[in-house]
Design goal:
- With 118 residues, the protein is of the alpha/beta class.
- It has 5 helices and 5 strands, in the order E-H-E-H-E-H-E-E-H-H.
- It is globular.
Amino acid sequence: MGAVVLGEKQVLDALDASLWSVGSTDFVTHAVQDAPPSHLRRSRVLLATALTDAAAAREVLVNLHPQWPSDVNAFARVIEVVSAQGDDRESARAKWRQYTAAGYTIVRHDLKTKEAGE
């Protein structure tokens, strides 16, 4: 099992840099989509700007992209990360409607609410 993180290049570049800056015991094995095939096979997480054949081998899609992901049906689980920023929330609302229209059951996890209640 593995995950693909779908997003725009600048977001994925920042995530890639962050993943390399953690301690050795916290490291998450990951690769960018244009990595050599041997790296893609060994990496649990794929950072991708588009869904490719390498992404299809993963079970989880983490969508950081503002657009509805293509081939969403290929994944056992889809995670949408939404910030509190206006544009991001509007994009998320549009995607929510698309998921609902496609028959998906949506489970919402509001981390801000959970933090405030702790």
